[in-house]
From TrEMBL:
It comes from Acanthaster planci. Belongs to the calponin family. PANTHER family: CALPONIN (PTHR47385), TRANSGELIN (PTHR47385:SF14). The gene is LOC110974390. It comes from the Eukaryota. One of its GO terms (molecular function) is actin filament binding. One of its GO terms (cellular component) is actin cytoskeleton. This is Myophilin-like.
Amino acid sequence: MANVGPAYGDMLARKKKIEGKRDAQQEHDMMIFIQERTGSNDIDVDNIECLKDGKILCELINGIIDNKVKCDQGNAPFKMRANVESFIEGCKRFGLKEQELFQVNDLFEGKNLPQFTQCIYAIGRKLQMDPCYCGPILGPKQAAENKRHFSQEQLDAGKHIHSLQMGSNKGATQAGQNFGAPRQIILQMDPCYCGPILGPKQACGEKREWTQEQLDAGKHIHSLQMGSNKGATQAGQNFGAPRQIIN
């Protein structure tokens, strides 16, 4: 690849991450595919370096699309880069998506070879969509679009599906559980019941009636005889205060 300086820091970490995505078998299959598509004898299937001048790539894409791209046979670096750019333009004409393409330096300087490999695999997938295609295969066949159309009647019917027949019930809860609650035995409340006994008898309600005099008497109970004294405070303390001597 092109001569570039060593990477340091974050650039080095990024380079190692990209290199870790390379797959030797995928690259080998890609080179075999290009060789079979172009019929070129100048391809070293174990070395991507032979593709960086862009000549073989232009030959590859020109064998696929009708609107040919320009290929410069010169060996100057700027002409090689121009060939790679022409190949990328040809991929766009073929219908590849933006995320399936690569940058010139990804191949020319070896900055992101996995992205370049992905581009060639995208070409292989798209070629297989043609039912008349009988050339070399690279990668799986691209899935065909399968749109689904629903009538208004079907859409309206979906609105009547009970919410608990699909999706989530908003997570697990303990609502409605009675585990640990007292067991109420109603039979024992019947004064005439004389059958077997299980558990304690349920307590009967015992209402208390208060006269107005009793209610009024409760208002005169000192507050410190019940409840809280609003927490401990230092109000009223004179410890540490200056001692006043009055003659």
